[in-house]
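pasting Putative 3-methyladenine DNA glycosylase for the record, 232 residues
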Amino acid sequence: MNSLTEPPQQHLDDSFFDRDAQIVAQELLGTVIRHCVDGLWLSARIIETEAYYVDEKASHSSLGFSPSRRAMFMPAGHLYLYYSRGGDSLNFSVQGEGNAVCIKAGYPWVDLLSCEESIERMRTNSPAAAGGPRPLTRLCSGQTLLCKALGLTVTEWNAQRMDPTRLRVDDIGARPDIVQTTRLGIPTGRDEHLPYRFVDAGFAAHCTRNPLRRGQIEGQDYALLRRELLAG
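structre below
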């Protein structure tokens, strides 16, 4: 997790999301998403994202407008939640109708706002398959696990905007290096080759699937983007 020092924080507003999907996907890495449940702020550092565009086959919006997909066609900053593999998944609409960023994985976060009690609530929300506590390193390592731990559901949040008193994303000043690679679970023939997946390099071992695992070759299987160079 992290130290209990309280860094300067800024809540992300709609203008943050009103940019190209790949830029938003990269800059969400290192931010902290928080959901207030029963007075507890359940929080996770965002460590893995994927960008989607309306004109590529892997995107839900490429299938056209529908009531369930309406959030992807709404102004930037709206939440698009859908059911995936028996659980809820979180996306944000971004610049351009039909474009979005999927929040693939996080890492449990403790600071002066989100206490150890918050972590215990997250573990209660998302127990291991055998019924015991899920290891902290795997508590939010997957799009449905993240939503489950944070208590985010389609029925409550789809097509809504964030509310800083209940749900928000905080910029805590982290600027991690980024691993760029192909997205996960994209069927053959649906633009599976596009490198629209982004991972916080320092947390690669805790995301859905480690892009830096043994056998992966830089320049062939992934690219390493230095954050300071991107800022320059």
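Residues 136 and 183 are 24 Å apart (CA to CA).
DSSP finds six helices and ten strands in the chain.
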